[in-house]
UniProtKB/TrEMBL annotation:
GO terms for molecular function: ATP binding; protein kinase activity. Gene3D superfamilies: Phosphorylase Kinase, domain 1 (3.30.200.20). This is Protein kinase domain-containing protein. The gene is Acey_s0070.g442. Residues 16-90 form the Protein kinase domain.
Length: 90
């Protein structure tokens, strides 16, 4: 299991304000966040040094499924495709 990217409540990742960690598992963590309109979203991050980028594959699959208009899948609103040290110092 890789070290999880820790985001501090109140920090900003792009246009998303982190509220709190919802949970974490072997592949990453999920955070509750809001956009500039105060709309509620989930932000998913993977381990800092994952050898296989599962999150990148997950984003691709969900984006493709979204083309079919299914209501039973998560909708991708935004993505940040690279980790930098700023996230661990929020």
């Amino acid at each position: 299991m890789c070290e999880i990217v820790e985001l501090t409540p109140g920090c900003m990742v792009k246009n998303w304000k982190i509220e709190e960690k919802v949970g974490e598992g072997g592949f990453g963590a999920v955070y509750k966040c809001v956009n500039e309109k105060n709309e509620l979203y989930a932000l998913k991050v993977e381990g800092k040094e994952e050898k296989v980028q599962l999150l990148k594959m997950e984003v691709y699959v969900l984006a493709e499924l979204g083309k079919f208009g299914g209501r039973h899948f998560c909708r991708i609103e935004d993505r940040v495709c690279q980790f930098n040290d700023r996230f661990s110092k929020c």
